Amino acid sequence: MRHFLTTMDYTRAEIEGLLERAQRFKRRPIEPRLKDRTIALVFFNPSLRTRTSFDVGIRELGGHAVVLEPGRSAWPIEFEEGIAMDGEPEEHIQEVARVLSRYADLIGVRAFPKFQRWEEDRQDKVLQGFARHATVPVINLETITHPCQELALALAMKERLGRLDGKKFVLTWTYHPRPLNTAVANSAVLIASKLGMDVTLLCPSEEYHLDERYLDAARKSAEGNGQKLSITYDIKSAYEGAHVVYAKSWGAIPYFGRWEQEKPIRDKNKHFIVDEQKMALTAGGLFSHCLPVRRNVKVTDAVIDSPASMVIDEAENRLHVQKAVMDVLANGW
Ligand code: CP
């Protein structure tokens, strides 16, 4: 049995296969590939796109979605093994995952990090707990990576650019008033490098580097494809010649748990906003973002509303790529 927890577990050929399947679903949306199957979607955090696109996609494939919100509409869950459960959680992941596996054919899980200790967050205990104890495939709906978003971005880029090999992909950090998850940033460098792009990570300083686990994987993928992963703090050189600019804000890992000390640093870097002047340096570059996005904080109206913007296409593609993932996990390749 195979889960879909991170694209690091999938070869380039498998990712390309999922994207081809997604293109078929995009052309022909209604197919009974999940007829009479049930998919449990477990949300520990809010969502607009993930929740809606999974629900719609499951229905279009003839299946049924059950949405659970532990701590709200479902019991709070304990993930530590071997402890006396005398706190808030009413049941343990060992029962939750196995019981849901008796009801459902697939389980999706969204569980953001707690943002207090990265060493703790990077263990991804909630997702790993589901994966360890479930007896059906588990899909990552965003924890410390966001693999479904990766596929949606990849499909959007392929639709506009065709082959991605050698194209320059820039992931730029942008300002946001709060520190955000590194998941989409990790994912952006993973998928762009896996698909043969020349990847540049643009951020304000070394403190905003992503976890070495993802940088290292991206570096290896890029080199395996004859490309490279570069990191720069220089906005102009990063944008020059870019084919895709992908914007995301994230919190600096060394400041997890002491965000008041990070705030003055992020406040000094509002100029990382994606605007027309920066986009003019690119090679007619495309723009995208995973959404939700704060207009005129992360990206100007002029850029997000321009023909170069892929944000709505990428969001739509969530529907098609997730159908491909569910089809493969439920029915095989
Ligand atoms: N991009 C994304 O995952 O959107 P939601 O948080 O709305 O699901």
From TrEMBL:
**Main localization (coarse):** cytoplasm
The cellular component terms of Gene Ontology attached to this UniProt record, alphabetical and capped at eight, are:
cytoplasm
Q: Which InterPro entries match?
A: ArgF (IPR043695), Asp/Orn_carbamoyltranf_P-bd (IPR006132), Asp/Orn_carbamoylTrfase (IPR006130), Asp/Orn_carbamoylTrfase_sf (IPR036901), Asp_carbamoyltransf_Asp/Orn-bd (IPR006131)
Q: Which processes are annotated in GO (biological process)?
A: citrulline biosynthetic process; L-arginine biosynthetic process via ornithine
Q: Where is this site: Key residue in conferring substrate specificity for N-acetyl-L-ornithine versus N-succinyl-L-ornithine?
A: 90
Q: What is its EC number?
A: 2.1.3.9
Question: Where along the chain is carbamoyl phosphate bound?
Answer: 47-50, 75, 110, 146-149, 290-291, 318
Q: What does the entry list as the binding residues for N(2)-acetyl-L-ornithine?
A: 142, 248, 291
Q: What pathway does the UniProt record associate with this protein?
A: Amino-acid biosynthesis; L-arginine biosynthesis
Q: Where in the cell is it found?
A: Cytoplasm
Where the record annotates domain Aspartate/ornithine carbamoyltransferase carbamoyl-P binding, the positions are 2-159
UniProt keyword annotations, A-Z: Amino-acid biosynthesis, Arginine biosynthesis, Cytoplasm, Transferase
Give the enzyme class. Answer: transferase
- From the UniProt record, which GO molecular function terms apply? amino acid binding; N-acetylornithine carbamoyltransferase activity; ornithine carbamoyltransferase activity
Catalysed reactions, semicolon-separated? N(2)-acetyl-L-ornithine + carbamoyl phosphate = N(2)-acetyl-L-citrulline + phosphate + H(+)
Looking at the record, the residues that make up the Aspartate/ornithine carbamoyltransferase Asp/Orn-binding domain are 182-328
* Pfam families listed in its UniProt record: OTCace (PF00185), OTCace_N (PF02729)
Q: Which domain of life is it from?
A: Bacteria
Report the residues modified as N6-carboxylysine: 298
SUBUNIT field = Homotrimer.
What family does this belong to? Answer: Belongs to the aspartate/ornithine carbamoyltransferase superfamily. AOTCase family.
User: What function is annotated for this protein?
Assistant: Catalyzes the transfer of the carbamoyl group from carbamoyl phosphate to the delta-amino group of N(2)-acetyl-L-ornithine to produce N(2)-acetyl-L-citrulline. This is a step in an alternative arginine biosynthesis pathway.
**HAMAP family the record matches:** AOTCase
Query: What PANTHER family is this protein classified in?
Result: ORNITHINE CARBAMOYLTRANSFERASE, MITOCHONDRIAL, ORNITHINE TRANSCARBAMYLASE, MITOCHONDRIAL
Q: What is this protein called?
A: N-acetylornithine carbamoyltransferase
Report the source organism: Sorangium cellulosum (strain So ce56)
User: Source gene?
Assistant: argF1
